[in-house]
Amino acid sequence: MGDFQGRHALIFAAAPETEYGYIRAFLDEHPDALIACADGGLRHARALGLHPDFMIADCDSSPEIEGTEIIRLKPEKDDTDTQGCLREVIRRGCTAVTLVCATGGRIDHELANLSLLEEAYALGVQMEIIDRQNRIVLHAGGCMKFKMPTGYKYFSLVPLDAVLHGVTIENAKYPLHDATVTRAGMITISNEAAANETVAVEIRDGRAIVVFSRDLAPAL
Asked: What is the pLDDT of residues 5-28, one digit of tens each?
């Protein structure tokens, strides 16, 4: 099965994707990442010339399989293939997970993939979801400090709970102090970091996702 203790895992989901530059950049930074494919995610790995360390498939997205190890599932099951990949890379000892090709397709699949951020946190693993325009991480409460990732202009705080209490944002264009933020009235979208500052986002009670985003250049 291989020794992947402490390794970073890259999981390919099956959402539509044709632009792979951001995945190549990830691979340049993590050349020894474990490569896992969730069913139809195999086509994205192949497009990058990658051979998966393992693949989880119920073959409902594609009949094709490839990988050093194939884990077959029945289509009639409770968990998604991507959820199965997450649990498997954690079982193999990976401590950080990046999920790609997970947005932009069916909205139910996208929401299910976003929910995996909470599952990964519960299992003690750091996880992010990236696409060519966004980086998405979980804010599990308490104080999170960060520098804006290179090339990203905005950050947004999207509540997972109906109400976030005690939200404080410092060193940002739109600061907050001990505010209440609700899903019905979000006031934490499209914020920006103050120049060369470390942003601090505190949530006293509640969980949210943090989305780092950038605008794409218009097509010529």
From this structure: 788 999 999 999 999 999 999 999
